[in-house]
Structure formats: C-alpha cells, structure tokens
Write a structure and sequence with these properties.
380 residues; alpha/beta; Aspartate Aminotransferase, domain 2; Aspartate Aminotransferase, domain 1; 3-stranded antiparallel beta sheet; 12 strands; binds pyridoxal-5'-phosphate
Length: 380
C-alpha cells in the first residue's frame, strides 16, 4: 500500500543524480577523492579534528568500541530505547551491555542517575544515543565519565548538526558515529561517518577500516605507493565514492533541510498542544536540533494495545507511522540480562512516530493531527 503521507521523504533532486553520474564518469568509484571530500566537509561543518567515512553506522559503532579498547569482561552502559546496532556493537567486541533507563517520558534519553548507579569495577564505557536528534544530558554524562575514567561513544545517528550548549553532537564524547541510511537526515542508501578529536583514534580507525593496510588502492592507483603492509587485524568498513558523492550533496543541503524541519516541528507543536492525552518528548527543548523524527507518547496506558489501534487508525487514513523503538533489552538475544527499565518500557509501549520531513505541509500536519485526535476520541 502506498501511504498518502509517508513517514519520511527522500530529499533528492537533480544534484544527486549529477553527483553520482560525475563520479561514475570519473572512473573511480571505490574509496577515493569523494570520500575525502565528504570527510573534509564533516571536519569543517562539525568543527571536529578528524572524520573517517565508514560503510554504515553499525560498523562505525563497532569501530568505536575497538578504538575504546573494549574487551570481553568489560561492561558498557547503554540505553535500550534505541536501534539494536547501538548495543550489538558492544557484543561484537565481546563486552557486556548494561542497560540503563531513560530519564522520563519528556526526556527519552539515557538517565545519568540510573547510569551512575549501574557503574561497577568492570565498567569501561558509555554509549549515548541522542534520540530523535535531541541531546542527552552530556554535561552530567561527561562528569560521570571523568569521575570513573570511562570512554564515551556518541551514537549521533539521529542528530547531524544538532547542538548541545553550542557543541555539535558527536564531538563531545571520545567518538561520534553517524548513519547515512536512506531514512536518515543525510541519505546515501548505506553509509556512515566516525568523528573524533583524538589523533591516535583517528589513525587507528583509518588502518582498521581497510584491513589494517598501510596504503589504500587509490594511493597505489594514483602512483603514491606501490605496495602495502598489514599492521593490525582490520576489516572492510569502507564507504565508496558513489555514495560519498551523494553524501557531499546531502550534507551541503542539510542546514536548509533542518531549518524547514524546525518549522514542521513548530507546526506540529502548535496543533498537538490541543490534544490532552499525549506527551511530546523534548517539548521544551531550545537547542538547535535535526528533528530526525517526530515522536509522541500516549498518556496513562498500561499496555501497547491502544497504541497499536491508534497506529492502525492512522494507517487506514493513509498516514504512515512507526515506533522508536521496540526496546533492545526485550529482544531474545538480550532478555537473559533481565534488565528492568520501567520508563523505557512505558515509552516503548506507548510511543508513535509521526511523519517528519522538510517538505511536509501545514495542511498535511493538520490532517495528521486531526486524524490522531479522532483516533484518540474513538479508541478507549
Ligand atoms: C540510533 C541508531 N544507531 C545505529 C543505527 C545503524 O545505522 P546503519 O544502518 O547505518 O548501520 C541506526 C540506524 O537505523 C540508528 O537509528
């Protein structure tokens, strides 16, 4: 079924087509000058020392765990209200995730108080996810990290160019990770970026990204090297120049896209304020944010059944919705850890993600909100 109003619309135009055809015509399509151009643009726009393009954010998060030297026996604090990749990366390096609750229904990011209570002698790192592009409480989290000597990995997939006290998300902890999956603010199909201000980490990330090799194919093809050594056990986590050329266009378009999303959120907030039985997370946020998604949470329900019926109602009216997220600690591979996270579970059972993209019109927002209002009136 084709939705009248989808959850997300790709912001692609002729520029993306020209960029891709230009790269194909250049006859260099794997990691090369376009990846370097995208990395340089990230360095400038995010005000960070190093940016290393990656095949996707899952690999960037895996890489971040390697850079933080996480190993079997180590514990890593993380949220459960996130996409599974933010937690799976901990298991890739043999470490153990320790799930923390979110702060509240209004602030659906990791709770620094719960986080500090869960620190043990084995704790080595914290993975922070900035939900919907809204910043987690980074001052508190960084204070805790310094006090207990923990590394901080920011999963900033939802928040490119979002800010916290004037700093870009992804630049506050030790490593920041971004995704360019189709439905993200920067879309290249698949793709990702790892950013850091730490020179040693950046050097290591470049080696490990490409099998631990000392030179890259592009350097050899352009006559800058004739051979290579393998100095560490690495991976193939490389982005290619076709996708990177899309990324350059998308990143250049991002500031304008985010300005429009701010207006979309404002239009939503104005209309949603008339609905008594919902809570809008981060409603009082004043930071510049990416508005990756538009989450709302139903009030006072004990199970997910009403939420599911409301979603069905919206779908029947041609409005696509989603849930961010089914909580990771409830998945079969993590339920042995027996985490109890009441606020996360409440939000996971009652959250509905409404459509969000730069070209969403005021009329469409009015239709979405009035349909939601009808649904909430009719479904008890
Ligand atoms: C919060 C979060 N972390 C990690 C990922 C993984 O990103 P990728 O699909 O680029 O591997 C996603 C993507 O959906 C995400 O939303």
């Amino acid at each position: 079924m084709e939705y009248k109003i989808p959850l997300f619309k790709l912001n692609f135009g002729e520029e993306e087509i020209e960029a891709v055809t230009g790269t194909i015509r250049s006859k260099w399509i794997s990691t090369g000058p376009k990846c370097e151009e995208l990395e340089q643009l990230f360095v400038e726009m995010f005000d960070v020392n190093y940016a290393i393009s990656m095949s996707n954010c899952t690999d960037a998060l895996h890489m971040a765990c390697l850079l933080c030297d996480l190993k079997p026996g180590d514990e890593v604090l993380c949220p459960s209200l996130t996409f599974a990749a933010s937690v799976n990366c901990i298991k890739y390096v043999g470490a153990t995730p320790v799930f923390c609750d979110i702060e509240s229904v209004d602030h659906i990011n990791i709770d620094p108080v719960d986080l500090e209570q869960k620190i043990t002698s084995k704790t080595k790192a914290i993975i922070v996810v900035h939900m919907a592009g809204f910043p987690a409480k980074m001052d508190d989290i960084m204070d805790i990290a310094r006090k207990y000597n923990l590394k901080v990995i920011e999963d900033a997939c939802h928040g490119p160019l979002s800010e916290y006290n004037g700093k870009k998300l992804g630049t506050i902890g030790d490593v920041g990770c971004f995704s360019f999956f189709s439905n993200k603010n920067i879309s290249t199909g698949e793709g990702g970026m790892l950013i850091t201000n730490n020179e040693d980490m950046a050097k290591k990330a470049r080696f490990l990204r490409s099998h631990g090799m000392t030179t890259m194919s592009y350097q050899r093809a352009s006559g800058h090297a004739t051979t290579y050594d393998i100095v560490e056990l690495g991976y193939n986590f490389r982005l290619d120049d076709i996708r990177a050329s899309l990324g350059v266009v998308q990143l250049n378009k991002l500031p304008n896209d985010l300005e429009k999303r701010i207006m979309v959120r404002e239009a939503y907030l104005k209309r949603l304020s008339e609905l008594e039985n919902i809570i809008i997370p981060f409603v009082s946020n004043t930071e510049f944010v990416s508005n990756y998604i538009m989450p709302v949470v139903l009030k006072k329900n004990t199970s997910s059944s009403k939420r599911n019926e409301v979603r069905e109602y919206l779908h029947s009216a041609g409005i696509q919705t989603s849930v961010h997220y089914p909580p990771v600690h409830k998945f079969s591979i993590y339920c042995d850890l027996k985490a109890s996270l009441p606020v996360t579970e409440y939000v996971a059972d009652n959250e509905i993600t409404l459509p969000m993209y730069a070209s969403l019109s005021v009329e469409e927002i009015e239709f979405i909100v009035s349909t939601l209002k009808q649904a909430l009136n009719e479904i008890q």
